[in-house]
Structures are given as structure tokens and as C-alpha cells.
């Protein structure tokens, strides 16, 4: 289960009148793009809070109030990502699944409209026919107060109320074209907080909605629909990121006016609780971008292959890259929750992945840039057993077939002698006069080398000593030529060269790292390849559910592009932190 250190929000909960009363939170993404790592911070924290007090839960709500920017496809991808991250359908890592069913802000359009009527009837909202430019001007600037439009002055009079109710009804009936008028709250045009200068509550958009169709030609603004939806869902604590701090007075204004003693008995929030908004800092990750807008730009301009490109910090990208829900959870717990903005290092994300994968990834031999090795003088047949995991016997063992033809990585052989000083300092692997241990198999000593016309080694003949007391300075991995399977491996680097893309250049796209992916070919041991093929043939949801440690190299995951005929892997992370080295 999740665990966070105490923080300003848990302190607030402990300080309640009844500190044991249930806490109801919600996670309310807008279906206008894919979820990213930042969202996992909000999701994990909201779901964790709902585990602390008996009777608590968290709700999954799609905030679908702008059909022009939103799509059912994004909604579906969000729900898929949430399911993956929380294991809601598979008993995954949060230990806290949301209270089904999923809700939509559009479920409450009728109540939200009734709230608009309620405020209008009390002179607290009015329909303004000013042009968008006039509207903007009427709200003033940081240094000058707003100027009331002629529509404001009559809002509080009985005739004004009747007029405004009539206009509101016409807005809803579709009488007016897009942008013809808006419904504004009547608050305070001189407020130092610009959000309180008669903000727009409803605007006209003759646009079909995926769930409500053409029923409503008007759509509520976030600041209006959000407090209403929270209250209707009996949310106690509405958590959001710091940029909404300035919006809190408006959140409270809406609730207060819909729940005050003056509110009519038919106020949609009569009898509902008053949620409290609290803001915490966003999660930012170095060397990448996290806003949906910038992510969309990368996808639309073809800089990356799609929303699930393994280099992106989208949840689908992270999943495809091989990050586990558990590793993202670990990262979010370690980042904690506070009021101060910070940037998380990629190293922290990678360390969380290493920690999780060290326990959960089975071991395998993958030979990169294979160099042929011929075993001469006998000892090359049969098979050896190797553990599936060095520390966890539950992984069982794997069989490594052995023939006279093997492969080792080209990088594990130096075509020179120690004697002549040709070996790099501290080099412990195979050389002409230096034996090496082929892990689980025996000690290989070079007998001869075959070279091509350019003098490049094409194959090395070795003798194999399997005796207990045979020794060599180092050990390497290898695979059998006859049974190993050729496959592709994609090694990723950060997507941007700059820690904060665009900070210096003004354009984040100028900071792209041109070498963010390198493809290599190699050979994978038979038992791992077999596991991959059977995973592909199973009803497992994602190829990326199958992760390995390719020994001495790093953690790898099967990519979505893999087929039984051609296996493809992504490198999740190297074995050690290599940042800055
Ligand atoms: P973006 O700016 O990337 O589009 P958003 O804030 O508009 O993100 P929503 O879909 O409205 O995204 O967010 C759903 C929830 O996730 C909100 O409560 C929001 O505060 C939270 N959230 C979004 N981004 C982050 C982040 N980087 N760190 C923490 N929480 C986040
Ligand atoms: Mg948003
Ligand atoms: Mg947004």
C-alpha cells in the first residue's frame, strides 16, 4: 500500500473537528489529452488520503465541460491509464480503488444550470452582451479596477432579475449564437483578485457533447462547475495544484451563495456538504515537458511517434517504456506533497524503477552486437541451468542450451594482449591472453581469432574449462548461437538536452535531443524469447507487462511493436545511475 510522510494536508485532516470522519477526494482530469507523470502525483495522493480514515473513498470524475477541446478517445485513454496505475481492475498497488462508477461533470449539467438560475434569481449573476474585447476591458488590470458594463447595474433590481432569467433561458434554448453573451457572476469588479471581477460562469457553444449531445448549447466554466460537482459528490477535500490558489475565493463564493440561508430551498446544493479546496505543488520532471499542450505539440508535429512514445512522460509512454505502476508510486511517495515548487530529477524516477524492477524482473542474457565464438576441444554441448533471479527462488531456473557455437558481445573482447599493453586499465574481460568466465558455463581461453580483410575479428575460437577451480579475472554473459533469437533493442536517452526545455531558447522544441533513441540488434537467450512469444499469445493486456533484467545491461521491457517473428525491447533504465558520467 501507499505511504506518505505526514504533510500539511494530513495535518489539516488531523485538525478537523472530528479527525476520524471520512475523507472523500476526487481525481478530475479533463479529457483534453493524455495523463502524464504529474497526474500520477495527484492520483496517488488523492487515493492515499482515502485510505486513512474509515469510510473514506476517492472518486474518478472526468471533467468534460468543453466539447471543443475534449474527446471520448482521450476519456477512454485516461480511464485506461488510471486502471493501469491503480490496478483498479487487477488489485494493483494503491490498495485503494475508486468508488465506481466513473462520473462526469456533464452528469451534473442540470444541477449546474439550476445553480445559475438560483444565482441569477438573487441578483448574483447577470447576462452580459458585451463583446469579448469589451468583456476583457471591463475586468480592468492588476493596477486598475474593472468598469461595470450597463448589464451589471440592473442585475440587482426586480426588472433586471426578470430580464436576466429570460436571457439565461434563451441562452439555454439556443436562441443566441456562439459568443453573443455570457452569464457572469456579480461579485466585485474592484477586487485585487482578478478572478473575482465578475467572472464568466456560462458561455454559449453550439457544439455537440459526447454525452449530452445537442441538449445544451451552453457550457459552464471550470470555476463554476467544479465546486458544484464536488459538493454534489460529497467530496470533503478538493485537492488541486497551486495555480488554482487564486481561484479558491471563487470556489468558496459559489458554494457559499448556493448554500447560504438566503439560498432557496430548491438550490441544487441545499443539504450537500461544503468541500474545501487545498492546493499543492505540481510535479515537474527535468529534461522533459509535462503540459498537455506541449505534449500535444510533440505528437502533432511528429517529433515523437505518438502519445505513448516511450520517451514521453505520458503514463502510456511510461508504461510502454517499462515503468511499473509501483515505480511511479515510489517516486510520488518520495516527492511527497508540499506547497513549494520543485523539479524532480530523472535520476529519482530511474532509481525508483531500478528498485522496483530489481525485485520483479526475471534475469536473461541478451548479447549486443554479437561476436561469434566457436568452442574447440570439446565441452560445448548440452545445457546449463541458471537462476531466474539471483535473490528470489520463486522465479525458478532457466535452461541455457549450449552448442559449439556461441555469441558474446563485441564489446567484451579486445583483439590484443595484456602483455603488449593493449588492454584498457582494469579490463577484466576476454582478450587474446586473458581468459574470462562465461557465466554459468565455464572459463573461456582464446585459441585463435578469425579476422576479415580489414583485420576486424569475425569469430573467436576458445577452449572451455568447466572445472571448479578454473579462474578468470572477470565474468561475461553469452548465448547459444543455435537457439538464441535475434531481436531489436531500443535504448533511450532524455528527449531534451536542456534541464528546463525552452528556458534559455524561448522555444522548447529548440532543445530537443537529436539522439534520444538508439537502435541496436542482438541475440536473446531462448528461454526469455519463449516467454515473450507466449506472453504475446496470451490474453495479457500489455506487452510491457513482461520485463527483464538483461544481465550486465539494464532493465528491458517488451515493446508494443514486438511480434512473435520479431521481438523488440525498450530499455527501461540502465543498471546503475549513469547521469552526468
Ligand atoms: P495540464 O496542464 O498538463 O493540461 P491540467 O492541470 O490541466 O494539466 P487536468 O486534467 O485538469 O490537468 O488535471 C487533473 C488533476 O491532475 C488536477 O487536479 C490537477 O491539479 C492534477 N495535475 C495535473 N498536472 C499535475 C502535475 N504536474 N503535478 C501534480 N498534479 C497535477
Ligand atoms: Mg485543467
Ligand atoms: Mg490543462
From TrEMBL:
Residues 137-158 are annotated as: Disordered. It comes from Tetraparma gracilis. The keyword Aminoacyl-tRNA synthetase applies. The lineage of its organism: Eukaryota, Sar, Stramenopiles, Ochrophyta, Bolidophyceae. This is glutamine--tRNA ligase. The chain holds residues 22 to 602 of 795 of the full protein. Its EC number is 6.1.1.18. Residues 140-156 have a biased composition (Polar residues). Keywords: Aminoacyl-tRNA synthetase, ATP-binding, Ligase, Nucleotide-binding, Protein biosynthesis, RNA-binding, Signal, tRNA-binding. Belongs to the class-I aminoacyl-tRNA synthetase family. It catalyses: tRNA(Gln) + L-glutamine + ATP = L-glutaminyl-tRNA(Gln) + AMP + diphosphate.
